[in-house]
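Anyone have tokens for YkgJ family cysteine cluster protein? Sequence:
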Amino acid sequence: MDCRLGCGACCIAPSISSSIPGMENGKPAGVRCIQLNDDNLCKLFGKPERPKVCHAFKACPDVCGKTNQQALDNITELERIT
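Reply: yep, here.
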């Protein structure tokens, strides 16, 4: 599965403990990443400063569902139970 352009759920729902440019202490769950642009696209995509955890995330139907809202709901729930 390819990421749905403009979804951004993986950049909003989960907490990220590693440093992100502009968010040196990472980001809490439910907080929009500062590197997510107005179109919900990552400004660091393809750049070496993109966190490894972000690079490692791979879209899949079980996590991303069929809509952006399902992805946000699923990732929020995964964050809650972990």
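The chain has one domain: 9-81.
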